[in-house]
Design a protein that fits this description.
three-stranded mixed sheet, 11 strands
Length: 527
């Protein structure tokens, strides 16, 4: 992408050439190719007649086909010999190339070409041969890339939905693609029982709707059952209508649990996800178990009307009412979403700590995982800080029987696996539990020792924790004062009342300062 932006391609052949050049060996010629394309460097040919086959690539040999044609043109190679040269280049058979070189120099010289120039041309070819590419492949790949780039630029949501559908059985790939979509301001909505199809689709508002079959525990059979019934007889009116119409052999309990956890029923008024899993103290059944039990009995008796299909006067809801219980916390809700959908639909576990991240974190996990970046900025021992959530933590033993931790961390930007040894792990291991959200202050620790096996010095760069605490304690530990500055000219009538309400509602131990200033920055008063 970087080189294409520099190239500013104006014809399809430019794409094909760049595709062929972008590989070890040939990519050394990319800067020269760009300069010649843009007219900043004169196009030269080692031998003038080479223009016949190198005109479209600005005098630079790019393809295997060009080598074949030039070997015939310059040194009278037969078609068979030029094909042998192509195969030797394609399969990196250096011995065959060495066998063909004397013939190329000898016959090329007989044609009146300078031996030194021929040596230079052959040297370029040998370097090029390390990863030579044929034009037919480069053209096909470039054509597909050109089409997909057009779709991504002009039908971005549809393009992303198609890619998500293509990875529908790979929940890890789905989560990566969704993160990419979010970075491009494409909203990926959670599943909805009345809008989702089997696959990812784009709704009337231009947003991507999660495909039912992509949910862990649903699958194609159940998704088809749900969608086909909806298409045949209209949208589901409520949860009871859904249970009455669905085939529980295709859409079983585990499938419905997944739908509830993912929020597929959230479109129905007056209910929330926790109710499906609320356990009746008397019978010990969850509400979902009750729904399935009632539905099964109703379907088994063909002579009865379904309890969910009575007229309004019969009040089917009197027989089985949604329980009254507390909704899940947002953290518990998104935890289940991640479990069944592969990404956080309603938010991120770190959302409530954005103030801490913006003001106190100096790096993110993507940067921590980039050793070259970290060594450049923090090799001197300068401390750095980051915020992360523990997704997995395992204690293991070294060869000497000492404990060490393998800790998987995650934030907005990426994930990182942290191996923590010795006293560092012993001191902080109680913090590393699944789901815990942490503020971590650390520094790089470079260790050098003599490796007896390789008989050379070995260098290892570790991240040494200096301070670890739970994010819920971060405001108290990190924030020493909350200060609000208001320009007197901008103050609206109710500002004092609203501030007073907020201060009483969110009482804490952190000192608060309100500073009012007049125009020009003159301090008017502190409170």
């Amino acid at each position: 992408q970087k080189y294409l932006k520099e190239l500013n391609p104006s014809k399809f052949e430019d794409l094909s050439a760049m595709n062929a050049l972008y590989r070890p060996g040939p990519m050394d010629y990319i800067p020269q190719f760009i300069r010649r394309k843009q007219g900043r460097e004169e196009i030269q040919y080692d031998i003038p007649i080479m223009e016949k086959y190198l005109h479209d690539t600005y005098g630079i040999t790019v393809y295997q086909e060009q080598v074949m044609l030039l070997s015939r043109l310059l040194a009278n190679f037969t078609r068979g010999e030029s094909d042998t040269l192509r195969k030797a280049m394609g399969k990196k058979q250096r011995d065959k190339l060495d066998q063909l070189k004397p013939k190329f120099i000898e016959q090329g010289t007989s044609n009146g070409h300078d031996p030194k120039t021929l040596e230079k041309i052959w040297g370029d070819w040998v370097k090029f041969a390390s990863y030579a590419f044929n034009k037919s492949h480069a053209t096909c790949y470039s054509w597909v890339a050109y089409q997909t780039a057009y779709l991504k630029a002009h039908y971005r949501a549809e393009f992303m939905a198609a890619n998500l559908t293509n990875s529908i059985s790979d929940i890890e790939s789905i989560s990566i693609l969704i993160e990419d979509a979010l970075k491009k301001n494409i909203h990926v909505l959670g599943p909805d029982i009345n809008e989702s199809d089997q696959t990812f689709t784009v709704n009337k508002d231009g947003n991507i709707r999660f495909g039912l079959a992509a949910l862990k525990g649903v699958g194609n059979s159940a998704a088809n059952c749900i969608v086909e019934e909806r298409l045949a007889h209209g949208p589901y009116k409520d949860v009871f209508d859904f249970f009455d119409r669905i085939d529980l052999r295709s859409c079983n309990k585990r499938c419905i649990e997944t739908l509830a956890k993912a929020g597929a029923f959230d479109g129905f008024d007056g209910i929330h996800r926790a109710q499906f899993f609320h356990t009746d103290k008397e019978g010990g059944q969850t509400f979902l178990d009750k729904l399935i039990s009632y539905t099964t009995r109703s379907h088994s008796d063909a002579s009865q009307f379904s309890i969910f299909d009575m007229d309004e006067s019969s009040q089917s809801n009197d027989h089985i009412d949604f329980p009254v219980c507390e909704p899940w916390s947002i953290y518990q809700q998104i935890k289940y979403e991640k479990e069944v959908a592969g990404f956080y639909i309603s938010g991120h576990p770190l959302d409530e700590y954005k103030t801490i991240i913006q003001n106190y974190a100096t790096v993110n996990l993507q940067q921590v995982a980039d050793l070259a970046y970290m060594k450049l900025r923090y090799a001197t021992g300068k401390p750095f800080a980051f915020v992360a959530m523990v997704t997995e933590a395992v204690t293991r033993l070294t060869k000497n029987g000492n404990e060490f931790g393998v800790i998987n961390l995650e934030d907005y930007e990426g994930a990182w696996k942290w191996n923590l040894f010795g006293e560092d792990y012993a001191k902080f291991k109680h913090f590393f539990e699944n789901g815990k959200r942490l503020f971590i202050k650390a520094r790089l620790k470079v260790k050098t020792w003599w490796n007896k096996e390789t008989k050379e010095e070995t260098v290892r760069v570790d991240v040494e924790p200096l301070e670890v605490h739970y994010l819920e304690d971060s405001y108290e530990k990190l924030c020493h004062e909350v200060r609000i500055v208001i320009n007197l000219a901008d103050a609206y009538p109710d500002v004092a009342v609203q501030l007073d309400e907020q201060l009483h509602q969110y009482k804490g131990k952190t000192p608060f300062t309100l500073r009012i200033v007049e125009k020009g920055g003159v301090f008017f008063s502190d409170f």
